Amino acid sequence: MLLLSGGAAVAMVLTDTGGGPVADGANLVIPSREPLGNPSAQDTTDPAAGQAGQDAAGQAVQDPTGQAVQDSAGPAGRGPVAVGEAVALAGRTPGLRMSVTVNQVVAAATPASDLLKPKAGAKLVAVEVTLANTSQAVYGDAPSNGAWLIDTQGQQYRSTVYTVREGQSFGGSATINAGDSRKGMIVFEVPEGAVPAKFQFALDSGFAEQKGEWTLS
């Protein structure tokens, strides 16, 4: 603003000090243990209808058995879904894509060995998972490394080396060729009073960006 006073010109600069929002160029940081869905990024159909879902590119998403799966769009993944439903997850290898299904949950599993038992006051929870390779890339990993169990109190648990009588484990690592699948139990040690609420899974020992989530209770 320019003011004239006694022949002298006085310039005044007005500065906006309002507290309006400022765009931040920082990258989005995805929580490592709380997947967030992005339903608008893809068009999926009801698995009960027996139709294939679609990924973000509009392509049909099916596992090798022809079962429709829910696509995991974006870095945060997709979920939660129910036990028995499949979620399509991408790995770190370009083009790698897996259909992951939680088949069943054993809330109080029986140790397979008398030498490997949970400590006093704890129990074993086993989650049976099927991994189906829906891409042309070969997938190699130790599947149990990418799994987490969350109870109703929000406590999170990593998988253990225990095996149970209710089903076979993955036996450590797994190599899954295109069109092939593997099934195995992932076992967790939790307090006896803990109630399983959620199961989360990511490819590449948990380092892949996309994470699927299943509701257990």
Automatic annotation (TrEMBL):
Region (Disordered): 25-77
Residue spans of biased composition, Low complexity class: 48-60
Residues of the DUF4352 domain: 98-208
Record's keyword annotation contains Protein biosynthesis: no
Keyword Hydrolase: no
Native source organism of the sequence: Nonomuraea maheshkhaliensis
Cross-referenced Pfam families: DUF4352
Record-given protein name: DUF4352 domain-containing protein
Keyword terms of this UniProt record: Signal
UniProt lineage: Bacteria, Bacillati, Actinomycetota, Actinomycetes, Streptosporangiales
